[in-house]
Design goal:
elongated, 2 domains, Recoverin, domain 1, single chain, about 140 residues, 5 helices
Length: about 140
């Protein structure tokens, strides 16, 4: 919310540019576009909250290049309890826990979708086999 200047629930290119500058890690225009492209699941050229959380999931999994803007963003977004205080740390860790829950739910959705595709492929295979068997009775 802090960096969503348009208050539309998304972080666009210019908002990401300002955020990275405020965090002390300015990026080139191309670098910003690549940052968005790496996590932009719906290809709308802006980051939703879910896509923003994906940055931290990828960082935790070691899937971001060390020199990438997303890696810098994830690293800069860590919290220092001595400066933020206990309440700030509590909010940070609650947000991280929520992000992990969102990520696991996302992974479950992907698994369920893959299982459904496998099931449909198996059913299609069985229907084709049944059709060929039926067809062979008519050709004899």
């Amino acid at each position: 919310r802090r960096y969503d200047a348009g208050k539309d629930g998304f972080i666009d290119l210019m908002e990401l540019k300002l955020m990275m500058e405020k965090l002390g890690a300015p990026q080139t225009h191309l670098g910003l576009k690549n940052m968005i492209k790496e996590v932009d699941e719906d290809l709308d050229s802006k980051l939703s909250f879910r896509e923003f959380l994906l940055i931290f999931r990828k960082a935790a999994a070691g899937e971001l290049q060390e020199d990438s803007g997303l890696h810098a963003l994830a690293r800069l977004s860590e919290i220092d309890v001595s400066t933020e205080g206990v309440k700030g740390a509590k909010n940070f860790f609650e947000a991280k826990a929520q992000a992990i829950n969102e990520a696991s739910r996302f992974e479950e959705e992907i698994r369920a979708e893959q299982e459904e595709k496998k099931k449909q492929a198996e059913e299609l295979k069985q229907r084709k086999a049944a059709f060929k068997e039926l067809q062979s009775t008519f050709t004899q």
